[in-house]
Amino acid sequence: MSDALDSAKPIKKPKRVLPEHFKSYTGVWVFIEHERGHAHPVSWELLGKGRQLADSLGVTLAGVILGGTDDGVRALTDEAIAYGADRCYLMQSEVLADYRNQPYTAGMTTLVNTYQPEVLLLGATTQGRDLAGSVATTLLTGLTADCTGLEIDMSDRSLLSSRPTFGGSLMCTIVNLATRPQMATVRPRVMPMPERDATRSGEVVTHALDLTEDSVVTKLVDFIPDARADKPQLAFADFIVSGGRGLGKPENFDKVFDLAKVLGAEVGASRPAVHAGWVDPERQVGQSGKTVRPKFYLAAGISGAVQHRVGMEGADVIAAINLDAKAPIFDVANYALVGNALELLPALRDAFERRLAAARARRAAAPATADTGEHA
Ligand SMILES: Cc1cc2nc3c(=O)[nH]c(=O)nc-3n(C[C@H](O)[C@H](O)[C@H](O)COP(=O)(O)OP(=O)(O)OC[C@H]3O[C@@H](n4cnc5c(N)ncnc54)[C@H](O)[C@@H]3O)c2cc1C
User: Where are the domains of the chain?
Assistant: First the structure.
């Protein structure tokens, strides 16, 4: 599945006319998610996609930043512009210092009602999902969750939001015909990261939030930094070696870890390997696990069910090891290794170890040559 509706065939839409008062809604918005001024990368990925949508529509792309009053939050406007936004809507208030649903919903709906965008995109993260649901219900508009493709239907400027359905066995395209903004959430790493261009310039529109702390029901008692910082960061790994049920037993997963260590890769897994307790659930790749977009993905003993593929087929290069030459994983693989993973994984580890050691030795012998072009 690509990030585009490659197969976008004309869709038969029921005849619903957009009410007159929504026709003035214009522009594509992306919610810039952050934690105390540290942006979540999905925000930049969505700006990349938002840029394409805005260009198709011939409208501006805006980043929406809600947060506390410190400079780190304001600095996000420069970043959003560097990643493609023409404009940023900035709302700063002490009640927005840390994410809470009520003030963030109040802030976002105020901005939407004031500046009237036609499309609003958010990351399908814990925060983005929470906010998107309450903003959509407050505005009484439609929201498509966990999209894997977003395109514009130029016949009526509507947003075509595609996503897997029926357990991933079908793709559906959802269109919001009668309300605005058209809202969608997209998981991290589904859309490619755009190039950052620090020379871009844009406009910053500041807007005050009319809400005080005594009207907010939830209180922040303590701030506990994300304890997952030292857990596998699969979604952002450049190299991933994954294992599946074909490895047979938990001890055999060591061969996946051994190759990953040599490559400096993260370890992923299919759902059966996780369900069998062979590896941590954080490592599951696929529809009910992580979506990854590495430069290189190796699948060992994984059949390539669609629920696994939706999570990894955005990888630049895919290699697969499988005993069965007809395994569906080979349909998406650039390199097919038909054979026993229990033999091929150690063989690959030894081969990469030798080759990388040789490359390191060459680099050490010729320090003036900064990059020999040898990479894992
Ligand atoms: C709602 C839903 C959500 C799901 N979400 C996910 C998800 O997020 N991620 C996910 O992975 N799955 C998910 N699944 C499960 C998915 O449908 C498949 O069942 C699963 O991906 C299969 O895992 P597997 O490839 O490891 O196992 P299998 O399908 O059993 O494949 C094992 C493969 O290993 C090969 N093999 C066997 N021995 C060897 C050997 N020695 N060397 C090399 N190859 C060998 C076999 O030929 C076979 O192709 C989901 C299913 C549903 C219904």
Answer: 20-225, 230-365
Cα(126) to centroid of ligand 1, in Å?
A: 27
Tens of pLDDT, residues 46-94: 999 999 999 999 999 999 999 999 989 999 999 999 999 999 999 999 9
Does 323 contact ligand 1 (Cβ within 6 A)? yes
- The answer to whether the CB of 342 is under 6 A from ligand 1 is yes
Is residue 302 in contact with ligand 1, taking CB distance under 6 Å?
A: yes
Whether the predicted pLDDT of 371 surpasses 50: no
Q: What are phi and psi of 307, to 5 degrees?
A: -65, -25
The residue-averaged pLDDT of 107-133 equals 97
Best residue among 303, 318, 330, 340 to mutate for probing ligand 1, ranked by most atoms within 8 Å of CB? 303
**Nearest atom within ligand 1 for CA of residue 243:** 26
Q: Which two tokens stand for residue 249?
A: 């037993």
Residue 1 has what pLDDT? Answer: 39
Non-local CB neighbours of 146 within 8 Å, separated by 6+ positions: 124, 163, 164, 185, 186, 187
Q: What is the mean pLDDT of residues 295-301?
A: 97
Q: Using a 6 Å cutoff on CB, does residue 281 contact ligand 1?
A: no
pLDDT band for 5, please (50, 70, 90 cuts).
very low
Tell whether the torsion through CA atoms of 22, 27, 33 and 37 is positive or negative: negative
Dmax over Cα atoms in the chain, in whole Å? 72
- Please indicate whether the domains covering 20-225 and 230-365 agree at the CATH topology level: yes
**Binding residue numbers for FAD:** 245, 270-271, 284-288, 301-308, 322
How far is ligand 1, taken at its centre, from the CA of residue 271, in Å?
7
Overall average pLDDT of the 283-308 stretch: 96
Residue nearest to atom 50 of ligand 1 (CA): 307
Q: CATH assignment of 230-365, given 1.10.580.10, 3.90.226.10, 3.40.50.1220, 3.40.50.300? A: 3.40.50.1220
The CATH H-level (homologous superfamily) assignment of domain 20-225 is HUPs (3.40.50.620)
User: Does any ligand 1 atom lie closer than 6 A to the CB of residue 173?
Assistant: no
Task: State pLDDT tens for residues 221-236.
Answer: 988 876 655 567 898 8
